[in-house]
Amino acid sequence: MALKKYNPVTPGQRHKTNLDYSEYTKKAPEKSLLRPKKSTGGRNNLGRITAYQRGGGHKRKYRLIDFRRDKFDIPAKVAAIEYDPNRSAPIALLNYIDGEKRYIIAPVGMKVGDKVLSSREKEIDIQLGNAMPLGSVPPGTFVYNIEMKKGKGGQIARSAGSSAQLMAKDGPYAHLKMPSGEVRMIHVDCLAVIGQVGNVEHENISVGKAGKTRWLGRRPNVRGVAMNPVDHPMGGGEGKSSGGRHPCTPWGKPTKGYRTRNRKKLSGKMIVRRRYAK
């Protein structure tokens, strides 16, 4: 999907770029697959802020996405490629031959009229949008929407432009190179979808003005050094002080270069090569 620029008739449009939405074929979503989505404003069930800089923004409805791809051996036809306000990736509306409709994350190159299939037992073609166990995927293939646990549904490589490459198979595990560069072992029975998530140009979008980030539900982020000592460890001081200590969170944890992953957890045993390995 290409990017479009604007004739700068206002200051906010001078550096603004956006998607041209030319690949989307339908504006109105499928009503049977919509659910209400309540805005939390970053608050938990006690009303306390747990995610900062959240709130406001345009009202959204949630689209039910089939991450499990558990409608096996029943062909489906792509009816539309649509926009989803809840994610960076485009979604595809599938019409199954038994009459059911489902949304899936659309890969690069998927078009209206394409046929897709999902299978756990049978051998199916290695083509865009088909879902199959990693054991059936040839090495070197790019996949997305990858399960970490059999039957749980895809959890890896779901955002715009993401994909993982199957490097090798070693017994019951497949070695996958993640978008971050990390090489991780995942069981060969876990499903994955062939292709790369669409909307690759998403990372090149320039918002252009502060107002658009508010439309997306993101509120301003106040720097710690601009706060008072009661609000942040880096707050206070005479004039414009630089903080007087290493950058940290409001709770005193270092923020730059501080590794927070727990190597002792079970998932650490599945990592063949870490993302920051040189």
Specify the helix fraction band: under 10%
Rounded to an integer in angstroms, the radius of gyration calculated over CA atoms is 22 Å
The helix/strand order is EEEEEEEEEEEEEEEEHE
Report the mean per-residue pLDDT as an integer.
Answer: 93
Largest beta sheet, briefly? 7 strands, antiparallel
Within the CATH hierarchy, at the fold level, what is the topology of the largest domain?
OB fold (Dihydrolipoamide Acetyltransferase, E2P)
Molecular structure report:
This protein is an all-beta fold. It folds into two domains: 3-203, OB fold (Dihydrolipoamide Acetyltransferase, E2P) (Beta Barrel); 229-278, Ribosomal protein L2, domain 3 (Irregular), CATH 4.10.950. The protein is built from one helix and 17 strands. It has one helix at 210-215, and strands spanning 3-5, 17-19, 34-36, 61-63, 76-82, 91-96, 101-105, 115-116, 131-133, 142-144, 146-147, 154-156, 164-170, 173-177, 183-187, 191-194, 271-273. The strands form five sheets. A seven-stranded antiparallel beta sheet has the order 9-16-10-13-14-15-17, with no helix packed on it. Strands 7-6-5-8 form a four-stranded antiparallel beta sheet, with no helix packed on it. It has a two-stranded antiparallel sheet with strand order 1-2. Strand 14 (173-177) and strand 15 form a beta hairpin.
Short description:
The chain folds into two domains: 3-203, Nucleic acid-binding proteins (OB fold (Dihydrolipoamide Acetyltransferase, E2P), Beta Barrel); 229-278, Irregular (Ribosomal protein L2, domain 3), CATH 4.10.950.
